[in-house]
Amino acid sequence: MSSAKLALLADYRTSDRELRDLEALGFRVFPTDKVTTLYPAVDGHPDLQVFRLEDDLFVHPKISPSLEKELSLWLPVRKGERSLSLPYPRHVAFNALDTGAHFLHRLVATDPRLLEAVKARRREVIPVKQGYTRCSCAQVSDRAFVTEDAGIAKVLTKLHYTVFYRPPSNVVLEGFEHGFLGGALSRIPTADRDLILITGDVHQYAYGRELLEFFALHRIEAACVGTGPLKDRGSLISLCP
After folding, report:
1. Is residue 240 a part of any domain in this protein?
2. Is 239 within the bounds of a domain?
3. pTM of the full structure
4. What are 104-161's pLDDT values in tens digits?
5. Is the omega angle on the peptide bond into residue 241 within 30 degrees of 0, that is, cis?
6. Is residue 94 domain-resident?
7. The CATH number of the domain where 80 resides is what?
8. 159 vs 20, 145, 165, 166, 227, CA distance in Å?
9. For the segment 62-80, what is each residue's pLDDT rounded down to a tens digit?
């Protein structure tokens, strides 16, 4: 295991400005693979390639040896069964949401080895229609979530979580009308704090003021990374033990 304290897995296309901002916050950043079997817009999204379950990293079976080796220096790596391919939902096998108590995903698409591990750790498994579950929703504290998916918002509310829900708006994802807000937000727990990283300038998000008010209400610390509109780069994966 690496002796460094803070590290992240980020889209290989993360801009130089974003990298500088992440490094200024104390993070060492590692790039994802480019997965050529996916849409170009998402071929580097961390939350499609890797799922963190407690201190294990579940990865797709065709991960490059170099990235697998790098990740294994930080946390144990477990290979899944399902390769990432088109069409949808063949590439969302690892794009699930783990709340700590509940596991939400489109279960017909979930990687079998990941699902087995989730059940072994006694998560309550909750089916949802949205296969891009993690892209669509970000956990920002133990009991608070942000999402643009009405179905996920309804499920989380029934489970007694607090939910910030707004319709899809102006989050950028190249080649698509809009991206997912969840893909622009990343909760990174550290030894002394939980930090929400926002990819872009939150003040340029259509509901930025309300989002900041939600964070303040729940005493959530947030930091903007980079400039311009919010960008769906796929949520960052913490490699911190």
Report:
1. no
2. no
3. 0.95
4. 999 999 999 999 999 999 999 999 999 999 999 999 999 999 999 999 999 999 999 9
5. no
6. yes
7. 3.75.10.10
8. 38, 12, 15, 19, 35
9. 999 999 999 999 999 999 9
